[in-house]
Amino acid sequence: DAKTTQPTSMDCAEGRAANLPCNHSTISGNEYVYWYRQIHSQGPQYIIHGLKNNETNEMASLIITEDRKSSTLILPHATLRDTAVYYCIVRVGDTGGFKTIFGAGTRLFVKA
Amino acid sequence: NAGVTQTPKFQVLKTGQSMTLQCAQDMNHEYMSWYRQDPGMGLRLIHYSVGAGITDQGEVPNGYNVSRSTTEDFPLRLLSAAPSQTSVYFCASSSPGQDHEQYFGPGTRLTVT
User: Fold this and answer.
1) Does residue A93 have a pLDDT over 80?
2) Which long-range contacts (CB under 8 A, 24 or more apart) does B104-107 make?
3) pLDDT tens per residue, range B7-26
4) Closest residue to A97, CB basis, from B4, B42, B101
5) For residue B73, which phi and psi values (nearest 5 degrees)?
């Protein structure tokens, strides 16, 4: 699976959009981009995933560049409860998530 | 559905003791995995299973054994606990395919003295 690079930490004001970048320059054609988050010491929680088209769900939007070498997770109106570690993961889609490799992620601080 | 459950929530062991961390899921997922998370670090994959009777090693398998006799259960055994195994352990399950997310349990916090 391709490796990812994320900033160590980011700040965001409550109510503003949080834009979390991820670089995955070695991504292969059959690899998807997944985002998970981990709030405090809970288990990670799935947010969104995509292959090459932009995706949106009730939690967030995922923007993938045309060359697929980077992506951005957007939380449109961040709240204090969005303070968490966000993991960007690239993996082959049809293998399922049984051996997902997590990096260090980005620690997002949402401030009042 | 209860989702993914893990027991115990907390455990303290002495060096050299053995124990089994329990993980169960009621979503009929084929895939199950064990991760450990050390303070301030990301998750590291210990072992995984793609179905009953099938297991394989992840990034950090040494000191741990697993078995998968049923679809629902995936216990993790520490054979002889060491202080380096002090960590939070997460179990996860999922179905095959790109549209299926991993569901994580609440974790077991293990301290080895």
Assistant:
1) no
2) B104/A42, B104/A43, B104/A44, B104/A45, B104/B4, B105/A43, B105/B3, B105/B4, B105/B5, B105/B6, B105/B23, B106/A42, B106/A43, B106/B5, B106/B6, B106/B9, B107/A41, B107/A42, B107/A43, B107/B6, B107/B9, B107/B37
3) 999 999 999 999 999 999 99
4) B101
5) -115, 145
pLDDT of amino acid A2: 63
> Which CB contacts under 8 angstroms, 24+ apart, belong to B39-46?
B41/A104, B42/A87, B42/A102, B42/A103, B42/A104, B42/A105, B43/A44, B43/A102, B43/B90, B44/A102, B45/A99, B45/A100, B45/A101, B46/B76, B46/B89
Nearest to A99 among B4, B41, B48 (CB): B48
CA distance B97 to chain A (A): 4
**Which residue numbers of A have CB closer than 8 Å to B's CBs?**
32, 34, 36, 41-46, 49, 51, 87, 93-105
A-chain CB neighbours of B98 within 8 Å are: 32, 49, 51, 93-94
CA–CA separation, A17 and A11 (whole Å): 11
How far is the CA of B19 from the CAs of B7, B11, B104, in angstroms?
A: 11, 10, 21
Nearest beta carbon to residue B107 from set A43, A96, A99: A43
